[in-house]
């Protein structure tokens, strides 16, 4: 059977690959999937992605990986957290670039296809997994049956939720008038997000199309607000973290790739290079907000103790940055109490110079990642002042 690896769900690919491996390698792989050491498990930041078919989820993954796997000035990069996935991700990005954007990965099936990524520096305490899947899963929930199990589970476990709004459909509606189906999808998606106490970022994909039509982000937001009451509620300013609307384009804005014939074909200009637009911003803004969101959330409780149910990454990061005081209760359980000045301490931890003398390698790596993510969030604020609710 000639199925390219990237079309095979990762679990199946791992099983196929493991079957042909020597025992030592198999052990290593097993350890990676099932017996992940506690320290590594604790570093996982949960990411959920909500998007209808063809909204640009896989293209965003390819573009995000292309962007994040190349170091910027601060040296922060992302790699696949297992060699198998490196090949898959490189393949994905390469095919995206070379096959004229005729994307070779229409995900099928009812499972998520996880792409685990890790920040690539010594001691970096942060991993995340981009869950790609067939958008039909989300469509299924529109028929009133609730979210299919894997998607519901991914959403419940997530620290960061990325809601994908299809920029091509927005561009078409802003040009030709609202379309019930496309509008129904947006309302459904926002309905799922509204009321969730998590870091949420909305991505408007295929921004190249809206940009080409001369639309500003402000116009897009005004358009959405007029047609979706819940959009306004989702973006209310007293949330624990802001729901940004982030323009992204996997193709980029330089006409390297462009759709033709109403989107059915993609043309590539070989004289130009692939420069995705703001593809790393959604996840970076999400990471930037995780700690602030949860500090705000815990501070509203009568007793600001980090619950055992909190994401393991949170407890770990808060401890590394000195935002909590660790104690033991009468039953001998370790308790993490949020410090009163946690928000101020967080600001200092992210901004202060990184010196080996006063912090561990892990804490320095975390601070560097947080600084990198804050810089991208600031960059978004400068480029698109309307991205953040005001
Ligand atoms: N113009 C434009 N089209 C895009 C972009 N990203 C994706 N597309 C188009 O949208 C289609 C669906 O994208 P895909 O990522 O496969 O959507 P998914 O089903 O949500 O994973 C692709 O085949 C492209 O033609 C983009 O940044 N700009
Ligand atoms: Mg896809």
Structure description:
By secondary structure, the protein is of the alpha/beta class. The protein has three domains: 1-35, no CATH class; 40-290, P-loop containing nucleotide triphosphate hydrolases (Rossmann fold); 302-375, no CATH class. Helix content is 46%, strand content 14%. The protein has helices at residues 10-19, 23-33, 38-41, 57-68, 83-98, 136-145, 149-157, 167-176, 180-193, 207-212, 217-227, 229-234, 281-299, 312-320, 342-351, 361-383, and strands at 44-45, 47-50, 78-80, 113-119, 127-132, 160-165, 199-204, 244-247, 257-260, 265-268, 324-328, 334-338. The strands form four sheets. The chain has a four-stranded mixed β-sheet. The chain has a four-stranded parallel β-sheet with strand order 2-6-7-8. Helix 4 crosses helix 5 (83-98) and helix 13 (281-299) crosses helix 16 (361-383). It is globular. The structure holds guanosine-5'-diphosphate and magnesium ion.
Please give a handful of descriptors for the protein shown.
3 domains; 390 residues; disordered N terminus; binds guanosine-5'-diphosphate; binds magnesium ion; 4-stranded parallel β-sheet; globular; single chain; Rossmann fold; 4-stranded mixed β-sheet; alpha/beta; 16 helices
* CATH fold category name of the largest domain: Rossmann fold
Strand order of the largest sheet: 1-5-4-3
Distance between the termini: 54 Å
CATH architecture level-2 label of the largest domain = 3-Layer(aba) Sandwich
Q: What is the number of helical segments per DSSP (H or I, 4+ residues)?
A: 16
Poorly predicted regions are 1-38
Strand content: 5-15%
Bound compounds, each kind once, are: guanosine-5'-diphosphate, magnesium ion
Largest sheet: 4 strands, mixed
CATH superfamily of the largest domain: P-loop containing nucleotide triphosphate hydrolases
Helix content: 40-55%
Radius of gyration (CA) equals 21 Å
The count of domains is 3
Number of strands: 12
